[in-house]
């Protein structure tokens, strides 16, 4: 049974405490319920993606949604498509100079700033999605990335991955190396350098500019991502031949970059929320691209007459040789050399495992079809 005297006593103690607090403001501070100061933060995120683009554009939105949810609504990110605040290729500068707080994009778009940036997206005949995650998270890649981006006042984190990409859409078939000579193709990063080495012309265009260039004949071919994103931009209506695999981007990692001063103004908990949102989006996007690319590849072939092609062996061999030279040329000294050497060492290490795991498994699986 409840002891009435205890209740009365507690009430008297409460009353006495209240009276003491009224008489002594310092006591009031001790007895008052604890107050937690929770600051609301709002950020603008610019992106390199066309408005409404599935996959890549959705990944940026997903980061924002997860930051908002995990912070109980105290951290809000407003996402802007390419061109809404700044053009796609000006996203990095906007964040570096503080015009925007964050970007979502591909690091190889910033090659003019440093030849090492492509290693944090994709390089020809480089790492698969799993391998680049391994290098960045466990092989020292993030520390080198912090050093490189920090020179420009940016903190960058993995924020999506497309998985393996296709080699591109072509108006005409590629039957030999001669077919690459004079070819005008939209292809950024080191992939573009490989094409130039083989006699082609590489053109950098943002996603929203590609279709018109292909339609008007300004370019003869384009790569973008894979069946899911490519279908949404309609490339199949202008170029019938779809080549693969995409040796230039075997596992493209996309990034969330944040103005370094803004990043350093966050609490450790706020930084952890952004990191967690980016990490979860990175993993979610890889599964999403893997599944949706399968759905849309079937759709393109079955309903739109897309003709799948593989690059001829002599073209693959020449691309591989050129890619090795391009990668080496991008890391001659300074931070670029250290990034190149770290990347190559990790790639060599993980290739050993790939040979006896995925590399051996895929052909074996086909035997039972």
TrEMBL record:
Binding site for substrate: 165, 186, 223, 249
Protein name: C4-dicarboxylate ABC transporter
One Pfam family named in its UniProt record: DctP
Keywords: Metal-binding, Signal
One Gene Ontology term of the molecular function aspect: metal ion binding
Highest taxon of source: Bacteria
Signal recorded as keyword: yes
Source organism of this protein record: Hyphomonas chukchiensis
GO BP annotation list: transmembrane transport
Lineage summary: Bacteria, Pseudomonadati, Pseudomonadota, Alphaproteobacteria, Hyphomonadales
Any single GO CC term annotated in Swiss-Prot or TrEMBL for this entry: tripartite ATP-independent periplasmic transporter complex
UniProt-annotated binding residues for Na(+): 224
Leader peptide range in chain numbering: 1-23
